[in-house]
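We include the entry.

. . .
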Amino acid sequence: MKKPSATNASDSAGTGSAAKSNGMAASGSARPYRKTNLHTHTNFCDGKCSAETMVQAAIAQGITLLGFTSHSMYPFATDWHLAVASHADYCAEIHRLQAAYADQLHILLGFEVDYLAPIACPRMEHYATFAPDYLIGSVHYIGTSDGVFTVDGSPAELSNGIRTRYGGNVQAAISHYFALEREMLSKGDFAILGHADLVRKYNAALHLFDENDTWYQRELKATAAAIAHAGVIAEINTGGMARAGLPSPYPSPYFLSLLHERGVPVTISSDAHTAEHIAAFFDVAREYAKKADYTEFAVPNAGSFEFYSL
């Protein structure tokens, strides 16, 4: 597992395998702050706007590096994933925008790939046909052999899934979410871990568990260790603030502190599904990262990472 170097900002397109890290940039090597967003959805999946509309919104918000990451489970799909037959069209459109806006914005091609064994796993080799710059690996589904459900679809879906698939055992369900995330980290080949504690999205509304409970914090500690071992970037994701009214980004303050202790690099992402959210709560996220003692953030670049000051 290689330690990344801070690379030249003009070379920020990724290639090939996922970036692997074992810590932060060397002291003083981070470049000046630039506004980036590497988690963006469009109407190719469950987003509401065209890719070009998202590009124009990013430029208006001062973003200089934008990564598109349609939901994917290639070669499978649900109604909120990029259709199997649309992957080539999606890539062609992103490539068109890269050329059309080259003098205003650096655009990367990516996918947010679900982990749903044995159907889907975020590995670059599975997407070789499309030559993405990077992948985000995410867990949205949990469940049993009797069926799966998403942890972020709706409060009703989550509570019903815990009742029907886990016999109402909240601890078993939540622990399974983090176990699947750790499994994905061990089996996947991707650059960025998406919304590491997405499972808490509806906890305030449903009062399912106490984030201060010993068992829950034990799951976070084990997952932080797995993230560090995998050498990926963990995103500070503001999507839950923009769309679900959460008071802070993913991951939680305690989880983020564990990641910092482990030397896990972070990036700031909006997980935008509409143009108005392309840079939602980025000022909050920067201060959030600084409060956890981060001084820089990372973006994937050609099999390594490049670092920028916060």
Observations:
- The first strand starts at residue 36 and ends at 37.
- The CA atoms of residues 140 and 153 lie 9 Å apart.
- The first helix runs from residue 51 to 60.
- The chain has one domain: 33-309.
